[in-house]
Write a structure and sequence with these properties.
The chain is mostly helical. It has two domains: about 90 residues, no CATH class; about 40 residues.
């Protein structure tokens, strides 16, 4: 006698196993659909990035195309802003005309400089220091200081 409160565990397990199998099949189908959609999104991103890199060919060098293509995929807005600023700067640089370069100093036109009074005094001071070195046998720096003292007193003139 089967009681109304008795549960048929065998039937329940079979029903649950069938339901789990159905859910696993549905999950597998959805995962396959998801993989296809992800692949389509990746292809679309690649196409968009390639098209945008080509539109900035005037700014991007050939060796940098792959770098900027990856940056466009990772962060499109920031990279487009950067490329637009680069394009604007390049346009500004090409618009600015460089003035003709003129020499800072023309030696041919300058001629020889006039002798200065300081040069004459320096030569006298140097000569006097050399005389002191020969006479006293001291070092040149000591002799130079003595010559300076003599010139400051007015003897060297």
């Amino acid at each position: 006698m089967a009681d109304e409160n008795t549960i048929d565990y065998l039937t329940l397990c079979e029903e649950l196993s069938a339901r789990v199998a159905e859910l696993e099949a549905a999950l597998s189908e959805e995962q396959d659909k998801n993989a296809v959609l992800v692949q389509q999104v990746v292809e679309a991103e690649d196409n968009i990035a390639n098209r945008e890199v080509e539109s900035f060919a005037d700014v991007i060098d050939a060796e940098d195309k792959e770098f900027f293509r990856e940056r466009l995929i990772e962060n499109r807005e920031a990279t487009l802003g950067l490329l637009n600023r680069m394009r604007t700067r390049k346009a500004v640089v090409t618009e600015v005309a460089a003035p003709a370069a003129k020499p800072l100093h023309n030696r041919a036109a300058a001629g020889d400089p006039a002798p200065r009074k300081d040069d004459e005094q320096s030569a006298k001071l140097r000569n006097r220091a050399q005389e002191i070195v020969k006479r006293d046998g001291c070092g040149y720096m000591v002799a130079f200081r003595r010559a300076e003292v003599e010139f400051s007193k007015g003897k060297g003139e």
